[in-house]
Amino acid sequence: MAGEQRRRRLRALLDLADVPAEMLDRIEASFVHESAAKEQQILSNERLEFLGDAVLGLAVAQWLYATYPDEKEGTLAKRKAAIVSDFAIAQTARRLGFGELVQLGVGERAHGGSERTSILADAFEAFIAAVFLERGVAVAQRFVEREHIASLDHENAALSDSKTQLQELTQARLACTPVYRERAEGPAHLRIFTSTVAVNDETLGTGTGPSKKAAQQNAAAQALLILQERMHAP
C-alpha cells in the first residue's frame, strides 16, 4: 500500500479508536513487526504487544465481570480465554484492515505474513497498548468493547475447551497440530483412560479420565499451561 494511502487508512483507524490524528506517528510503531524492524534498524512492536496483552485482558475481564454477574470464576475464565485468543483477535484485526497496515520484512511479506494469525493478533495488542498510552485506559477499553468484543458470538463460540485452545495456539504460534495417544486400563465397567499430547514431537501433557475425551481434555489443559508459560517467559 502506497505511503499516503496507508496514512489515510491509519488516520481512519485512529478516528475509530477516538485518537487524534496528530498522534499518528506515535501510534504507527504498533504496526512494526520484528522482521521489518531488523531490516530497517528500528524498534519493533514487541514491547507494545507485551503491554497490550495486559490492557486487553483487563478490558475483557471487566466487561465479563459486568456482563455475567451470576457466572462463576471458571466459566468467566473460559470466556476470557476465548475472547483474547489469537484466533479471535486476528479475526478483528483482519476486519479492521491490519494486514494492509502492518510493516513486514521482505521475506515475511512474501510468505504471507500479513495474513498470519499470530502477526495480526500481536499487531492488534500493540495497537491497544499505543491507544492506552496516548489516551488512557477508558478510551482503550471502549475501543476493545466496541470493535472486538461486540463482534464475537458469546453464546455459541465463547466457551472453547482446552483441546480447541491448544490447537488454536499451536497452529497460530508453532504451525503444527497436537498429536494425542491413548491407552485404557481396568475392566470395561471401570475403564480408566490415559492420554498424552505431543507438540512438535515433544510430550507436553498427560491426563486421565473415565473417557477418552476427558483424558484428552486434561492432557490438553496441562500442555496449554506449559506453552503459555514458555511464551510469556522473559
Give a verbal description of the structure.
- A hairpin with a 2-residue loop joins strand 2 (192-199) and strand 3.
- The chain folds into two domains: 3-151, Ribonuclease III domain (Ribonuclease iii, N-terminal Endonuclease Domain, Chain A, Orthogonal Bundle); 176-231, Double Stranded RNA Binding Domain, CATH 3.30.160.
- Helix 9 runs antiparallel to helix 10 (137-148).
- The chain has twelve helices and three strands, in the order αααααααααααβββα.
- The longest helix is centred in the first third of the chain and has 22 residues, at 46-67.
- It has helices spanning 3-16, 24-27, 34-40, 46-67, 73-83, 86-95, 98-101, 106-110, 117-135, 137-148, 162-173, 212-231, and strands at 179-185, 192-199, 202-209.
- It has a three-stranded antiparallel sheet with strand order 1-2-3, with helices on one face.
- Helices cover 60% and strands 10% of the residues.
- It has 234 residues and is mostly helical.
Radius of gyration: 20 Å
Query: Order of strands across the widest beta sheet?
Result: 1-2-3
Write the CATH fold name of the largest domain. Ribonuclease iii, N-terminal Endonuclease Domain, Chain A
From the spread of the alpha carbons, the general shape counts as: globular
Mean pLDDT: 87
Through-space gap between termini: 35 Å
Quickly give the CATH architecture of the largest domain.
Answer: Orthogonal Bundle
